[in-house]
Amino acid sequence: MGSRLARSLALLATLSLLLSACAIDATEPSPAPSTSASDVVAPSPTSPADASAIPAQTGPMYSKLRVFVASENAGQVWVLEGAPKDKFTLVGKIPVGRLPHQMAVSPNGRWVAVNNRLSDQTSIIDPITMTEVVRVKVGKEPHGITFSPDSQILYVAHERDSYIARIEVGTWKLLSPLLVGVPQHVLTIGSKRPNLLLFTVTNINEGDDLRAYDLEKNTIAKFKVQDVHDAYYTPDQSEIWSSSSGFIDKPSDRMVIYDPDTFAVKEEIHLGANHYPFHTTKENQDGMYAMPDKSIMLLSDHKGPSLLWVDYKDRKIVAETKGIGNQPFHTTYDPLGERILLTTNVDGMVNVIDVNTKQVVQKIPVPLCHGIVSVGIP
Fold first, then answer.
1. Per-residue pLDDT tens for 53-77?
2. Considering the domain boundaries, does residue 99 fall inside one?
């Protein structure tokens, strides 16, 4: 009993440390790894390669939406499911590594990936069979994660290593890494600029905290900006926006707006003292689908706590969804159900929000939930 209590207290202490700052101080980065087949760990049993082929879709066509949610303290990915307009229910729990955190789904809906922050691994999940098919050993404290727009490469950022891992989709072999020289926090890649990988550096005092890796030229451009937490494209990909701080106890309403081609800062805005913007729904990460209204950008707001509906062209908040718990993080979109699903970490809830009314219509318990992605199931 005593040893079990000690382990529980140790896990709570670790979670408290990680949650106190979404970006944590980095130790000296270790050398980039060699690409070896031994770095790929296959769990047992492994699902058949052809068991989960998803038919090609021409737009949102599915009988139900399957939602995958990282439960940090459970070491599991919880699976929710709901037909359009029906309520979501829990249909499974998938064991993964220690402290599953950020997630991504391939644009073709074939794979779900989650970074296990404390076991230095990335788990790959088959969304049809709902099984972990492989666990890839990556660098220290994997955090940011995204697929390439063609679903061929998975990129993994590390908070305690100086490279970005590249994993070949399907074989799950490590390819030659991107040597960026600094620890990274989050990643962003857009379909309109598929050869530009954005990454933020928020856990060292080097400066130029937003950078872009050109995947064709193998060059790195530095944005002249400090204090960046997350960075993302607007829904029409005409601009890049970045949020600030990233520390739970150091709120900031500051957002910086950039030209995505010249990387120049266009404007710095403040959303108001009652707001602390964090994340938005990202292409190639948070789901197969995006809201059709490209004039609105969603932002999770830690200080509300709320979900902000932002007219990014007019630089103003046009609606706010309240009635959610503390520390809202990531969102995914259900087009046929016209719903947004948002994780709130402290109360351990997935909040289902009606896109039309902007109101919370359902809450599903998932302990210490963080990352969330969704896949349409025929």
1. 444 445 678 999 999 999 999 999 9
2. yes
